[in-house]
Design brief:
- 35% of the residues lie in helices and 23% in strands.
- The strands form seven sheets. The protein has a seven-stranded mixed sheet with strand order 17-18-16-15-21-22-23. Strands 3-2-1-5-14-13 form a six-stranded mixed sheet, with helices on both faces. It has a two-stranded antiparallel ribbon with strand order 4-7.
């Protein structure tokens, strides 16, 4: 593909540990990346904070760096897309732009008690029916409530209409447009636990329950559309694409049709399935969320997450010292396979309990099937395989909830580089696994949304941009597959309710 000078989109990919700027050309190819890490603050056990100014400065630095490194003129940048760590909460003063405290990060558990109170007050069903979520400290709503109750003077200022709230996208838009635009997109709004995903408006009942004035909240816009302009020297560059990271990855994987899904293999796994214009009520502990809004039409998604995926590989490396690098698990698994194609060893990495569809916070990690000849290779292989089994757990829940069969799975994230894992994933799901050429699907999703709004490409172009690097076809027959999965389920059962005070 030839890179034509003069037409680029820059995606600002604001993650939990770093801010990146990704340069995308008009063919949808990634040309360059600039990245800067920023500080994580842990002021108390269970608390996680970021400095919003540092988030902005690192993001701005990455943006300027990509222009500088590539010798780009502002006029060559047709649009900016933003994708961001979701749920992280920032509150600032409308008139000065000064934040009232550090950002409370999505991982932060300080509002667990506020959530318990909401549950005790009977809001569980209401939250599920209207926001698609489960009541949890993860989402933004209770984080705002905490700030208003605990930052001196915040409540009075909020009541006088002097404070603004934003998730990270909103904060970046506000900073980049020098305070001219206070807006978010549907996908980010749907992670606040304050947004009614059916009525497509902030939910009065929940605002009242969490005592949050509506005047603080951003305007909710299409994910592909106009969010104002960044003025850079004498040029203006429009911001035209915004989506939360997992939704951006769904878009970047071109999962535009109902029933298409992607799985991201990172520290944890995040699987999202496009459910079209339907909000699906999960019976299995998945959440419903807005995938994106385009031309005032909203698409929904079902989302399931696995807490420990690549993190179990890190444990092999840093905890057990079985391997020196994550990539080595490929050779371990191959050696184990040569010795015994069918692995009798099962690792259940329930280090922090089990999420969907088991939901047991008293489960703990376990290894089953050990014999005198079990090797470290078998254990490494079983750890790798646990990612695929957990993915099947989520996939089954999605199929059950949606009634939509999974035809194939698109993948991204660091661990999908592992060919053994991908082949085993196809085997255990019984559907082809497609690994795209470009694994930066989050940034690509934001860039795609932005370019779409300025006419750089159409949805059809985006589907055809999507180049598959390799498709892994299932090779096991149904009974072999189900046999292995049955053993996995037996292993999971035995690891459940391990902590004794669960009785
Ligand atoms: P995150 O965005 O959550 O930080 P990444 O997408 O960068 O995660 O993926 C990194 C994770 O993937 C790490 O947990 C690492 O252990 C795992 N990982 C990376 N490469 C491999 C590999 N070749 N095989 C297995 N796991 C891997």
């Amino acid at each position: 593909m030839s890179v034509m000078k003069g037409s680029f989109v820059i995606a600002l990919d604001q993650g939990t540990t770093s801010s990146r700027a990704v340069l995308v050309d008009q063919n949808g190819s990634i040309c360059d990346i600039a990245q800067k890490e920023f500080t994580q603050y842990f002021p108390q056990p269970g608390w996680v904070e970021h400095d919003p100014e540092e988030i902005y400065n690192s993001q701005r630095w990455a943006f300027e760096e990509i222009l500088r490194k590539n010798n780009l003129q502002e006029s060559e940048i047709k649009a900016i897309g933003i994708t961001n760590q979701r749920e992280t909460t920032i509150v600032w003063e409308r008139s000065t732009g000064k934040v009232i405290s550090n950002a409370i990060v999505w991982q932060d558990r300080r509002t667990a008690k506020i959530c318990d109170a909401l549950t005790a007050d009977g809001f569980g069903d209401y939250v599920r029916d209207n926001t698609g979520l489960v009541i949890d400290a993860y989402f933004s709503g209770t984080k705002i409530q905490w700030m208003l109750e605990n930052v001196p003077g915040a409540r009075e200022k909020a009541n006088r209409g002097e404070l603004l709230f934003g998730t990270v996208d909103t904060w970046l838009i506000w900073k980049l447009t020098e305070g001219r635009v206070h807006a978010t997109d549907y996908s980010n709004a749907s992670r606040t636990m304050l947004f009614n995903i059916r009525k497509l408006d902030w939910d009065e009942t929940l605002l009242k329950a969490m005592n949050i004035p509506r005047s603080m909240l951003p305007e909710v816009r299409n994910s592909s559309g106009h969010f104002g302009e960044l003025v850079h020297k004498s040029h203006t560059i429009p911001i035209t694409g915004v989506a939360g990271d997992q939704q951006a990855a769904l878009f970047g994987n071109a999962c535009f049709k109902t029933g298409t899904s992607k799985n991201t293999y990172g520290t944890g796994c995040f699987m999202l399935m496009n459910t079209g214009d339907k909000v699906i009520q999960s019976k299995s502990g998945l959440v419903s969320t807005i995938a994106w809004g385009i031309e005032n039409k909203v698409s929904y998604a079902l989302e399931g997450s696995v807490f420990i995926a690549g993190a179990a590989i890190q444990w092999l490396r840093d905890g057990l010292h079985l391997i020196k690098s994550a990539g080595e698990t490929f050779e371990c698994a191959e050696r184990s396979y040569q010795r015994n194609p069918e692995n009798p060893v099962y690792v259940v990495p329930a280090f922090a309990g089990l999420g969907a569809p088991y939901w047991d916070m008293y489960a703990r990690g376990a290894i089953f099937g050990l014999t005198r000849d079990t090797s470290s290779d078998d254990i490494a292989r079983a750890t790798l395989e646990s990612m695929a089994y957990q993915t099947r757990d989520i996939a089954e829940a999605m199929v059950n909830d949606s009634g939509i069969d999974m035809q194939k799975l698109r993948v991204d994230g660091g661990a999908c580089a592992n060919n053994f894992l991908m082949a085993f994933q196809a085997d255990i799901l019984g559907v082809p696994v497609e690994r795209p050429k470009v694994l930066e699907s989050t940034a690509l999703g934001a860039a795609s949304l932005a370019g779409l709004a300025v006419g750089m490409w159409s949805m059809e172009d985006l589907s055809s941009h999507k180049e598959i690097e390799r498709t892994f076809q299932p090779s096991l027959n149904k009974s072999q597959r189900n046999n292995l999965y049955h053993n996995w389920q037996r292993a999971v059962k035995r690891s459940m309710r391990w902590i004794e005070d669960s009785q």
